[in-house]
Amino acid sequence: MYRPVGLLVCDFDETITQCDSTCEIAKLAYEKRSRQGKCPRSDKNKSIDVCPRPWSHYVKSYFRERKEHIKRWHETNSNKSLQDHYEFLKTLGEVEMISMERVEGDNCLSGICSSELFEHGRMLKKRDGAAEVLKRYLPKHRGGNDSRHLYILSTNWSRDMLFGSLKDYVGIEKERIVSNDLIFDEADTATGKLERNVLSAIDKLKIFKSLEIPKGTMSVYIGDSDTDLPCMLEADIGIIMGSNCALTETCEKFGIEVVDGLVGKINMKDFSSKKGCNKLFRVQEWKEILDSKLLGD
């Protein structure tokens, strides 16, 4: 019999949710300003409180700069080993920082309240079975069993939105959600500034390695992209959710074995001497995790 799972850590966007939800934060801010009659309006008086440009401008700028950064890095750096790839993943945090600074400078996300983000989070569409699997895993911890810990580890920009998405459906505590976040004033209104906590895959890895694995148990990490790869390889069991093409190519390049499915695919060797064992499991839906009984009955 293998060790029970004592530490379960999950990515959020496109792992638990159907789509990336960061843009939903901007949607809330833009729509609220529009309802209040603040935007759109012209900049005839050169006011410093002008309305930001359409959100599509910031999205396009981000992806253009990310593409250019990747091209430059590969032209001047080696990418022959997994460690080289980790160095590359670390530098992607620079692109995230530039994007955040641009959004802050143009005051894109100001004006929304944490309660509005929480309520909007409740409406985010999740992958089928995600909430059920996480809820079934969590109750034993809530009942006083300290051998089970669930964390959400995300590069999303709103902890309140993630909490709203999971609190009622899963029962997770807000303290167990680690992400970037909006900064609020005394009136609980977003200032437009962002708290930077998780900018890259390497930030995720540092946080994951700091989490406690209860004695006699093992760790599982579930993610969907390259940003989750270091954590998936660090965990006793790493699970890929879905078929991200870029992640698949990375695994193939660096000799990381990807086993499709969980049911009947795990043996005792997968739970021992994990360090240095480049093996991940891939599922297409959360039901496969439930059926495997990896997280318990």
TrEMBL record:
SUPFAM superfamilies xref list: HAD-like
Gene3D superfamilies membership: HAD superfamily/HAD-like
GO cellular component, one term: cytosol
Domain of life per record: Eukaryota
InterPro entries: HAD-like_sf (IPR036412), HAD_sf (IPR023214), Thiamine_Salvage_TenA (IPR050967)
Protein name: 13354_t:CDS:1
Species for this entry: Acaulospora morrowiae
